[in-house]
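ok so i was messing around last nite and threw this chain in just to see what happens. nothing serious, just curious
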Amino acid sequence: MKKKGIGLIKIFLAFIVMNYTMSCTNNIIYNQYKPIEYSQWHKDSIINFTVNSTDTIAKNNLYVTLRNNKDYEFSNLFLIVGIKFPNNYQIVDTLEYEMTSAEGRFLGSGMTDIKENKLEYKTNVTFSLVGDYDISVQQAMRKTRDIEGLTSLNGITDVGLQIEKLD
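result:
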């Protein structure tokens, strides 16, 4: 009888976890990764995403998603992210993200040598115009006391964009 009760509890917990996971991913309206050739992101290589929006009311959260491997040598990451609206209006942001803990361990999820990071870009965004929104992501890393940026940033394997519709 005791084993049966424990089994039912395990099934119940598995159902809760599965249901929670599904509810978190049901709101994803856009999710795309683009690979970085040879895991070397050149400073002039701009990763572009086109998002077509027809919903001018819903609020959304935007995330830059990326994967890095053990060759990534920095504790942070600087990105230049831009949005070009259907009416050609543009927003450009320079962003900094932490990539490691204080102890130097890579942040993100994944049990392998590849870590996946979901970096918050913008929250509560409404795509107020119908049409295509062009979103660009460019690395802007440089070494301390170095005016010129890195020509090539090692260890980034994929760069992506994820958009979640808020309830």
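not much to say yet. Confidence is low (pLDDT under 50) at residues 5-23.
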